[in-house]
Specification:
The complex is a heterodimer of chains A (378) and B (228).
Chain A lengths: L6 E13 L10 E13 L3 E5 L6 H8 L7 E6 L2 E2 L9 H4 L2 E5 L10 H11 L4 H14 L15 H13 L5 E5 L7 H18 L2 E6 L2 H7 L2 E6 L2 E7 H6 L4 H10 L6 H10 L3 E8 L3 E3 L2 E3 L6 H7 L4 E12 L2 E11 L2 H13 L3 E3 L9 H7 L4
Parallel strand pairs in A: 3-8, 3-9, 6-7, 7-8
Antiparallel strand pairs in A: 1-2, 1-4, 4-5, 9-10, 11-15, 11-16, 12-13, 14-15
Chain B lengths: L10 H40 L8 H14 L4 H7 L1 H8 L5 H25 L3 H9 L4 H12 L1 H19 L10 H9 L5 H33 L1
Helix pairs in contact in B: 1-2, 1-5, 1-8, 1-9, 4-5, 5-8, 6-7, 8-10, 9-10
Classes of the chains: A alpha/beta (378), B mainly alpha (228).
Chain lengths: 378, 228
């Protein structure tokens, strides 16, 4: 967000291939989990990496703390090229990188306090310093009274908070979150995300967040990269990507997060109840500058256009405007009815300064995926 | 004169022999459990660790160990005892007596333990190991502070199971002059048609097994209660 961005994690043409197991002997097939990724994550970012399962995002994040080694390219973390650093020299780097997991990965035979103390023991802290640090961390995540419980006695959200406390123990500069909220219910997800935001704000820790949930990115990330089949297909400022997605996969993800756009079932229901043309108008509060060209604001001309076309009847069916990094974004869905010519003229004018997602009429509906992909791609 | 009825068993003579037999059995079983149990633990960790995808992944080492264990384990112990004789002489200096029985017992126990340890370690969630790696723990530290503690409850039950296996092996030690309860039951009970003597030995063994299994269960239960 700041202009004096300082790179903390740099991927340079990184490739990671896995040799397929099972088939005996050499020359087995290999799969490319990460395919020529070049990406820079800056200090202080909450950087979201989003993709469907199998897109390579979990592998990508593990290249940052060298749990996986690249097949090609270089990975630079905190100014050190870790691409070929031997395991023995990785420890100081790994202590500066905390990691939390979808399944929490707490030590089941250690208490909450012992879990949090584990990285401190690895770092040979004095026992009284350990105790003080553990108490401090448990207070920060709000679990002081559970210090002597075992992980099995905690709820999912509490377990993840222990995971966060443990990951923060050695004062890392980077926190890797691998689907950290995917096993949690929506309410707990928000709690954990709030905690992560506090971690970022209070300690200035850079967070790399792997997820398949676009609303997670929307809620806390400031930058995002979209992965598909091992590649980063799109990336940038979160508002920009939300407001002007270019890749189809990105659009599909955004459709799951923005409440403004109706889902396929809702469109079907609207067609059932309303014979007219169902059109969603995308709301974009500001112009968006992206490196393939600028995308203007959208949806700012709805009222005036409607007023100028009295032959077209309008009824508002559905909609919502969300805030992404402090800026409004969303969509409002209307049913427009009128003569064919009137309707086309109206939509043409409306479309001049707004992105439209045209779901067609009840008689001639436009398939959902097609409508979403066409909309906003002007 | 052969004493045919239980009532005529001369316990005054048998008592010291029985006591010596119990001592011999305990000697053999405990030595084997400690030595074989420890070596088996190490071998089991190596087996687990060298498995494809694990901490010390090494397909060659894994294959070789796997084959050796698979060859030795199915050999019936009484035959193994005889087959090992030349090796036993080299290592122990004699092929007769309690010590000569302990050596092949340790070898067999190591093999059995390694397999049990491997099987129990495999059940540890790999995610936990990954978490420890992400914190910068070295591989040996992970084995010591994560892997074994996480698998401790089932490992303790596995060792209790081993105790019974080792006790079973010790009963055959009599064939090479190793003494012990098994030998006592055969020599003074079965071969002298004295059911009372045989059953005395059997009951002592049952009690031994019950005590060990009971202790192991209690420890494992405590460990499991916090782990689940």
């Amino acid at each position: 967000m700041t202009n004096d961005a300082e790179p903390i994690i740099v991927f340079d043409h990184v490739v990671k291939e896995f040799r397929q197991r099972g088939a005996s002997g050499k020359g087995g097939k290999s799969t490319r989990a990460v395919d020529d990724v070049t990406l820079t994550i800056n200090k202080g970012d909450i950087f979201g990496i989003i993709g469907y399962s199998g897109a390579g995002k979990s592998t990508l994040v593990r290249l940052i703390n060298a749990l996986e080694r690249p097949t090609g390219g270089t990975v630079t973390v905190l100014g050190t090229d870790i691409t070929t650093l031997p395991e023995s020299k990785l420890r100081p780097i790994r202590q500066k990188i905390g990691m939390i997991f979808q399944q929490f990965n707490l030590f089941s035979t250690k208490t909450v306090a012992q879990n949090v103390a584990y990285p401190l023991q690895l770092d040979h802290w004095r026992k009284d310093y350990q105790d003080r640090r553990v108490a401090e961390l448990l207070e920060f995540v709000g679990l002081s009274e559970h210090a002597n419980k075992y992980p099995s006695q905690l709820s999912g959200g509490q377990k993840q908070r222990v995971g966060i406390a443990r990951a923060l123990a050695t004062n890392p500069q980077i926190l890797l979150a691998d689907e950290a909220t995917s096993a949690l219910d929506p309410e707990t997800t928000s709690e954990v995300l709030d905690l992560l935001r506090r971690v970022n704000e209070r300690f200035g820790i850079t967070i790399v967040l792997i997820t398949h949930q676009m609303n997670v990115v929307q809620q806390i990330a400031n930058r995002v990269a979209v992965m598909s089949a091992g590649r980063v297909v799109e990336g940038g400022d979160v508002y920009d990507v939300f407001a002007a997605p270019r890749q189809e996969v990105t659009k599909r993800f955004i459709a799951t997060a923005l409440r403004g756009l109706p889902d396929a079932e809702r469109v079907e229901a609207m067609h059932r109840d309303n014979p007219g043309r169902i059109v969603s108008v995308v709301i974009r509060q500001r112009d968006v500058t992206r490196d393939g060209g600028d995308v203007p604001a959208s949806g700012q001309n709805i009222s005036e256009t409607i007023a100028r076309h009295p032959a077209v009847a309008t009824s508002m069916l559905y909609g919502g405007i969300d805030t992404v990094t402090g800026q409004g974004i969303g969509a409002i869905t209307y049913e427009f009815t009128g003569g064919d010519a009137d309707l086309e003229a109206f939509l043409a004018e409306l479309g001049e300064r707004s992105d439209l997602v045209d779901f067609g009429t009840a008689e001639r509906p436009v398939p959902y995926e097609q409508a979403i992909e066409k909309g906003g791609a002007r | 004169m052969i004493a045919l009825a239980a009532g005529t068993t001369n316990w005054d003579v048998l008592k010291p022999i029985l006591a010596e037999s119990v001592v011999q059995t305990l000697q053999m079983v405990l030595t084997t459990l400690v030595v074989g149990g420890f070596l088996g633990l190490v071998l089991g960790v190596v087996l687990y660790g060298t498995r494809p995808g694990n901490l010390f992944e090494n397909a060659v080492v894994y294959r070789i160990l796997d084959i050796i264990i698979n060859i030795i384990r199915p050999i019936p112990f009484i035959i193994f005892l005889a087959a090992m004789q030349p090796v036993t002489i080299k290592v122990v200096g004699t092929s007769i007596g309690t010590l000569a029985a302990i050596f092949p017992m340790c070898v067999m126990c190591t093999m059995a333990t390694s397999r049990l340890v491997e099987q129990n370690l495999v059940t540890v969630d790999p995610g936990i190991i990954e978490a420890a790696r992400s914190m910068g723990a070295s591989k040996l530290t992970i084995v010591r502070t994560v892997l074994i503690p996480e698998a401790l409850a089932p490992l303790i039950l596995a060792y209790a199971f081993l105790f019974i296996g080792v006790l079973d092996m010790s009963a055959m030690a009599g064939y090479i002059g190793g003494g012990g309860l098994g030998n006592f039951a055969i020599a003074y009970g079965y071969q002298k048609f004295d059911q009372g003597v045989t059953w005395t030995a059997v009951i002592i063994m049952i009690v031994l097994v019950q005590v060990v299994q009971g202790i192991a269960n209690a420890i494992a239960k405590r460990l499991l209660r916090r782990g689940q």
